[in-house]
Amino acid sequence: MAGLPAGTTPGSPEPAFGTRTDGHRLFYSGQFNLIFGDPESGKTWVALAASAEALNARQRVLMIDLDHNGGASIITRLLSLGLAADTLGELDQFRYVEPEERLEAHGVVDEAQDCPPAVMVIDSLGELVPMFGSSSNSADDFSVVHSGIIRPLFRTGAAVLAIDQLSKGTESRTFGPGGTGARRRTVGGSSIRVRNKDQFAPASGGSAYLTVNKDRHGGLRQHCPPGDREPLAGTFHLRAFAGGALRAEIEPAADGDHAPPDFGIAVRNPERVVDDVRQLDQLDPPLSSKRDAQDRTGWGSDRANKALAAPGK
Q1: Are residues 100 and 148 in the same domain?
Q2: What is the pTM of this model?
C-alpha cells in the first residue's frame, strides 16, 4: 500500500498466454480465466494451444481432465500441434490427471502448490462442482468449490484456464456460461466466448471466433476493436497439413471487425422472425439497444433477442 502513492508498485497485469499473431495475449497468469461456448466449438483446442505455447517455452502444464477426454486423446492432440513426445513424457513438464472424487481433486491442488505449473487446464468446470455434491446453479455451492479448489490453483501463479459450456436458454446465453452467475463474477482474468466459424475436424482443422466476455484488468480489451459489449479478440485457426500436423494461430481482429450474430439461439418461428426484423429496420430513428426495441415494439425480452440476433441485424 505504501508503494501506491510512491509509484513503486507494478502496473496492471498483462495477459501471458494465448498469444495472437500480433504478440498480444488472451489469458492472465495468477488468475482464474474462463473459456466457454457450445459443444464442439473449439474450446479445448484453444486451451491446448495455450498449453502447447507454455510447453514449447519449457514451462510446466497441468491438465485436469474431468470431462473424460482420455489421456490418449489429449496426447494425440498435443503431438499434432508439434509437441515432442519426450516433452509430454516428462512429469516435470506435463502432468495429466483424471480425478474421480473430491479427495483426489484436493490431492491435485496439494501437488500443484508444491510444484506450480505455468498453465493449468480444467476441462470442464461443469464436472467439477457436482464432484463435491454441489449444485451448479447455487452461488453458495460454487463459492465453496472455488475457495477450496480453484483459488488455491491460481494463487500458485498459474494461468488457470477453465472450460465451460454455454447456457442453453435464449436469454441466459447472451450473458455467458451456464449455472450460477458466480462463475463469471469469480473470473479474475479473462472470460472468452468461443463460437464456431468452420467446423473442427482432425483432417481439415477449423476455426472459431473469440470474443471478450470479461476482462477484469483490461489488458486484452485495449487491443480489441472498440464499440461492442463483447469485442472480437480474434479468430482462432487450426490449420491442417499433410501427415496430420496442425498449427494453431489466433488472428487478431482489425479495427471495425465484429463477431457475427449468435446463430445458436433457437428460432421456433423463422417466418415471424423475418417479419420482426423488417419491423425493426423500419423504425426511425434506428434502435439504440435491446431495451429500446422492447420499449418501442412492446415485445418481450426473448422475442427482441431473436430478432436482433437474426442474420442481417
Answers
A1: yes
A2: 0.81
